Amino acid sequence: MSPFKGQTGLKRILNAGGYSMAGLRAAFTGEAAFRQLVLLNIVLIPLAFYFPVSRGERAVMIGVCLLALIVELLNSAIEAAIDRISLDRHPLSKNAKDMGSAAQFVALSLIVAVWATILLG
Questions:
Q1: How far is CA 101 from each of CA 21, 36, 46, 47, 97, rounded to the nearest angstrom?
Q2: Is 57 marked active-site?
Q3: Tens digits of per-residue pLDDT, 75-119?
Q4: Which of 10, 16, 36, 96 is 20–30 Å from 50 (CA)?
Q5: Backbone torsions φ then ψ of 6, nearest 5 degrees
Q6: Is the CATH number of domain 32-120 3.30.365.10?
Q7: Which GO molecular function entries does the Swiss-Prot or TrEMBL record give (predicted)?
Q8: 52, 98, 16: which is closest to 7 by C-alpha?
């Protein structure tokens, strides 16, 4: 058992919420890509309510937008962990960062594919 896992119950939930807010704050202040995705979501999510689509389609349109934010948070976490380990150039570090970037590319492509399928389908 980890010595860092000391809290249980409501205290653990409150701590986790605080850590989550700190992570969102760090991503927003330190990651331009995250801020750009937030802006994209500020545009696309209200726009999803404008189009005459079913509730299910609207949920999927919004869900893929939020998924891109999740992927960017994970990508930024990977980059931070790699940079914490070493700033030296290493093929495995490059692979990890490139794979995180590729995941974000797939998530953004998913937004385009889902929105195009629903709106043009």
A1: 23, 15, 27, 26, 6
A2: no
A3: 999 999 999 999 899 999 999 999 999 999 999 999 999 999 999
A4: 36
A5: -85, -25
A6: no
A7: kinase activity
A8: 16
- Tell me if 27 sits within 8 A of 75, measured CB to CB: no
Whether the pTM exceeds 0.90: the reply is no
Asked whether 75 and 108 are in contact (CB, 8 A), the reply is: no
CA distance 51 to 97: 36
- CA dihedral defined by 79, 32, 39, 73, rounded to 10 degrees? 10
Q: Cα separation of 112 and 57, whole Å?
A: 14
| 14-30 residue pLDDT tens | 989 999 999 999 999 99
